[in-house]
Each structure stands twice: as structure tokens, then as C-alpha cells.
Batch of 2 targets.
Target 1
Amino acid sequence: MALGGCLRAGRGLLRAAGPRGPPAHRGYAGGQPPAFGFLFDVDGVLVRGSQALPAARQAFRRLVDSSGRPRVPVVFLTNAGNCLRSAKAQELSQALGLQVSPEQVILSHSPLRLFSQFHQKCMLVAGQGPVEENAQNLGFKHVVTIEALRKAYPLLDMVDQSRRPKQMPPPTTGFPTIEGVILFGEPVRWETSLQLIIDVLLSNGNPGAELQDVPYPHLPVLACNMDLLWMAEAKMPRFGHGTFLLCLETIYKKVTGQDLKYEALIGKPSTVTYRYAEYLIKQQAEKQGWKSPIRRLYAVGDNPMSDVYGANLYNNYLKSAHQNQVQAGVKRSLCTASPQTEDHLELRKDCNNSVESCESILVCTGVYRHNADGPSSMKECTTETVFHGHRDFCFDPRLVEASYVVQDVNDAVQLAFKKENWS
């Protein structure tokens, strides 16, 4: 995807975004409290792999005062999920040279703490890193890992011949019936996770049993992080969890003739995730004693199919809410088949729907790279794009059209400050 002309337009906006007239607000050291907040993607915006991008530190010098206190509420909104929230906060603190609290970090799975109707069920968890600890921290009381399932039923994992049992194992007894599946992120051994997850869905949670009639609808599946690709140190993007989900969906469809259904799709571009981010932004403002309501959010990302799409989708939701076309709270998007209604969420109690807009700012330091020879208008940029989004989110070219395109995160912060008449 190439947005050369769009980038030039973004630079023009960066120069001219500030309204003329009254002097810029000085914030915040007892001055004008902010009426806006930032949602920052991490990989490709603030860091590449383990290395901080130079523009990130420059940007955050603008976002804190001389004492290191925040001037504007900030949430780090990443689709990473194979780590603890506290570990990601520590990683960001080291990269940016300032203190980041876990309460400022939303991982792809963070909103699952609100899905309390599944917390007492026996859930199979897939991914890598501390998946069991993550699930427990989110409130899930009964968790089974892929590795525990493989050890209980060693005959299920047959692709790697070196891991096949050398002799017939005794029958497994006392293993709990699985009642749902949580897909935290891409696993290490894809063949093992794909096989065992399919086994659980086909057997209605009893993978040691003989296959009878295939149950449909199948057990609830909660999936986090839909990114097909992500940007690390390599020159080209790497496979993300969205690629794993694509494999799982394709296998299930081929084996059963039915579509794999998700009880929830969490992480960008899900509206649930942005609603949760808004909630944390407001909590930060309250903690700082800022009395003015937060009116505008600026979502800064490098991936048009998750960051831009998600911010624009949420902006549409906000517009609908303020037009009284939907009730305040998280409502199911018309573009997605996942039942992410407010019935799942405790966010209903946060009925102060002060935020009016969520503007998307695309940077050129990650998945998206501009091409100076590319099309000269955003419309040309998006009409012939290969859709890298998830199957259950429709491709609407308007949703991958960023409000602004700038070079890096420092430019994004300056742009927002000028729009807000903030210095």
C-alpha cells in the first residue's frame, strides 16, 4: 500500500493544523487541562523489535513535563499478547526513558477481564509465553494449556515423529471437559496447536473420545490479536496471530464444511478494545485531577488494517452514539459477525460518553511504508488494496483511510498538539 501523495498532504497539515487566533494552551502544570488523549500502537510506532525508534523519545519529551509527570493521558494499545502487562510496561519504560504503568498498557487480551461469564469455565488456552498466568490474571479460574492437553492425550500430536509415543500410553482418566478456547497469540508449534484445538472443537471438549456427530455450534472461541502481519527488525513484515487464525478457520471449514465462529474477537481493530482504551484514558484523567472531560482521541499506528481500521471503526461508533442512533456502551459493529455487545462488558457502568471522536494517524516507520511514486490521493490508495483484515470484518476502503499520514510518531504528536492549539 503506498500513500506518497497522502504523506505530502499530512506534512502540509502538520505545518498548518493549528488554528490561528488565541495563544496555544500551556499544559499541563496547573494550566489548561487536556481535552484529548493518545492511543499509541507499539511495534512499528515506538519500537522495532527491541530497539526504540528515535522519534519515540522525542515525542514523549513533549508528553511529560520537566518533572516527568504526564501532560496528556496516554494508553499504549498493542496487539502483542504473549507477555504480562507488567512486563510490557517495564519494556516500554526502558525504551522510552520514562515510567510507564501497567494501567497504561492494553495488550490484545486485556479486555478479556470483562468477559466474566467465561471466568468459571474450563478453558483451553493457546499461545506462547505466560499464557496460563495471563489467563489467571484476567480472572479465568480453570485453565488447561495446549502442553497439558498434549501430555494427557499424547496420541493426538503426531506430526513431529520425534514426539510420538514409543509405546501405547494408558487411557487418560480424570481430565476435565473443556468448555471453551482462548487463543492468546501465535504459538510456537503451529501444527500441535492447530491439531489439538480442532480436536477439542470436534469432540465438544473431550478430545480422547471417539468422533461422533460433529457438534455445531461448537464450543465458544475467544480470539485475541487479528494482525495478519507485524513489523520487527526484519525488512519485511512477519506472520502474526491473524495468520494462525486464518489457518485454523481454513482447516475447520475444510474438515466440517462449517464456518468457525468466534464468541469474541479481541484486540485491534475490535470496537471492544477501543472502548476499553477510552475507559482507561478517562481513569488516567481522573487520577491526575483533570476536571475537563476528554473529548477527542488520537490513535497513532503503523498498520492500516488494524490501527487505522480500528480507530475509524470506533470513530463511527462514537458518531452513532452521539447521534442517539445507538445506546452508550460497546455495540456490535455492522461489519463484524462477532457478538461483542455490551452484555459481555462491565463498561456499561461507564455511561459518561464524553469522547466525541477518535482520529487515526498513520506513521511510516512500520508495516506501512510510503512510496514517493505512489498515488496522489487517499481514495486511489485504498480502492485497490489487498485486504489483510480478519474474515469477520468487512473491507470498507473508508475504514483504512487514515485521517492523517505523517512520517513518525513525533510528527503525529506535533500534529495533534497543533490541532488542539496545545504547546
Note: Confidence is low (pLDDT under 50) at residues 1-9, 13-23, 325-345, 372-384.
Target 2
Amino acid sequence: MLFSRGLSRISRRSYNRCRWLYFYRHEQQLTHSNYFPSPIHSNEKVLGCRVIYSWISSAFNSVGHQIQHQSSPTVEAIEPSDISLPHQDQVDPFSLVADELSILANRLRAMVVAEVPKLASAAEYFFKMGVEGKRFRPTVLLLMATALNVPISGPTPRGHVDMLPAELRTRQQCIAEITEMIHVASLLHDDVLDDADTRRGIGSLNFVMGNKLAVLAGDFLLSRACVALASLKNTEVVSLLAEVVEHLVTGETMQMATTSEQRCSMEYYLQKTYYKTASLISNSCKAIALLGGQTAEVSMLAYEYGKNLGLAFQLIDDILDFTGTSSSLGKGSLSDIRHGIVTAPILFAIEEFPELRAVVDRGFDNPADVDLALDYLGKSRGIERTRELATKHANLASAAIDSLPENDEEDVKKSRRALLELTQRVITRSK
């Protein structure tokens, strides 16, 4: 039924379908196609996870030939990065959940109170007013919770407990809080490992209070997240988010201990990026769906949105590390390369200039090697190809939202438009 409904939606919603299918047809033209299996193959191992693609993949495959002959000249002429929602359909994602974000911020500040004043001060460092960031991840999760407010047909999924809408919303808000605590804990630990001195435009916690307290503050946040997670009493959700913490550690270890071959492997880089960045948001989106009692297909669409949005986000971060400024990023520019971390722009540049490989192998301890790598990057299409890869993942995230079962409720439609808008903001941001 979902499959046939998806096909009927393709014919009815012409704007979104043309936008979607345009992206899918052009997927194989992107320069990274060797690094990701095609989504039309089900049950393939992608980024360390068994990804079972839903009926959307079959829909794309079956109608692709027809669309190739029927697409309008206007759609054919549009570049992927230029496509966005019609002006009348645009919504501000952050404004849409601003009231809830304020409630979450107050709860988070209350949750990180500790008996020892110094630990409490350290734990709340990035939850204080003015330095809490834009709360990107909680915004995504709150929007996803509303976007998935769809009727559940058939048997209720295992582990789902019927509850009032207000109670369900509170539990889904808890996922947003847990996700933010895990995210901030990972930032605190990363800053210690990277010996960073700034974060979000202010001194990093390890710089201000020392490495030991920064590590303990991160551990404390993780413990608080575990307590909140246990309170949900949903073993599948607990398992999902426990795996996220494992992925964060695995990704950081992959970044620290690499062979020469691994450092120059796009596949290895994308695996690491999934673990370090995309796993948290993707599995949290899936947790939102599971708490709402959604089917495996809908839960996987939520996961796919989060995974591809997270990958797009990190790829743009990689670009900004080369093109942004310290003030716009809230951290030092060229931070990654100066720490010997090889990211997508350099990996693409190596494909055009193999001699750059020898520079990468030396590790960038010499400032002259950093300058030489930047020269090669400037002559290559590394930045452009990374942006194309980010755009592809943003489009796949949009495709996942557009695959959700139909719903005529205005709040649901508005939240889905906001999630689509986020995919565009991610790839056009400058900080």
C-alpha cells in the first residue's frame, strides 16, 4: 500500500516529484559515486549499518525512464544547489519550534546541575544563555516528531505503548535533550583530544578550566543522558542511542589511528564521518519514530533523513574549514589540516593531483606543507566536488521526507517543509 501510495504521490505533486527525480537521475553524475552504493540496491552495507531502503527506491527506479522524457526544460536547466522550496512554502525551522527549544534549554540547564559546584559550572558551560548555539539537533528532532504525526495502520510495533499526545511529545522532547547532552559531551572530549582553545566563539572548556575537568564534565553529561534514556523504558531506543556513543568513540579512534592508505581513502573518511557526526542525528530521528510507534519503513525514512543531513552538514564543515574565518566558525580556520586531519576537499584534490599524496603522508607538521597542500587544493575542484557531494546527501535527506505517508494536517505539512528547508540551509550556510 505504501508503495502504490508513493507512486500516486509522484504523479500528483509535480513540483516535488520533478525536484526529487531530477536529483536521483543526476546522482550518478556526481564525482563521489564510487564511494556510496546506489540506493536502488536494498540491504547493502552503507557506512557500517544495514540500510534497508523503502519503497521510494523502487518508485525512483520504475519511473525514472518516464521522467527522463517528460521533465520540463525548466527543471533540466536547474543546478541542484539552486533548487529550494517555493517562496510561499518556505518556513523558518527554528522559529517553528522556538517555544519548545526554550523549554528544552531550561530543562537542560536543570539537568546538568551537580553537587560539586566546579563540576556543575563545567557541565553547564555550553548550556548557558548566549553560548548554547542554535540547537540544530533538537530543532531537527522536534520537527521530525511533528512530521511523523501520521496514523499507524496495522499491528502496533513491538515495544510501543499507547499514550496521550502530550505524554508522547514529552518523551520525544526527552530524546532531543539526550541528543544534545551526548553532542555537547562529545564536543568537550573532542576539544581535549584536539587541544582546542576556542569553541562557539569563546574559550573552550579545556582551555578555561583544564583538560581533566573538561573530560569529567563530558562524562557527567553522558551519565545524565543515560539516566534520562533509562527513564523512557524503551529497550530499542536505549540500544540505538547506546550504539551512538559507541560510534562516537569508534569514529574518534579512526581519526586518531590511521594508516597512510586509510588517511587517503574517501570510503574510510565517510565511514568515520558517519560515526562522528551522522550517527547521532540519524539514530535520534529513528528513536523519535520508534517512540511514536511508527512502522519499520517510516522509522527508516526518519533515519535516512538524519544520516544524509548529518553527512551534508559535516561536508560543508569541511569546506568552511578552508574558506571560513575564525570569527565566523567560532573556532580557528584550517583547524583540521593543521591537526593533520585529511577531509573531503583534500581527498578530492589528491585524485586530481596524485603528488599531493606525498605531502599528506608527511602529516602537515611543517607549515610549508600546509601551504603546499592549500596550493594544490586551490588548483583543484576539491571544494566544488565536496559541495556537490554535500548537495547530493541533502537531496537524499529531502527525498526521505517526501516519501513519508501523506498527511493533510497543517502542522505536519509545515514541519515537513521546515525539514526540507533545513537541507537547503545546511548546504548554503557560511558558519
Note: The mean pLDDT is 76.
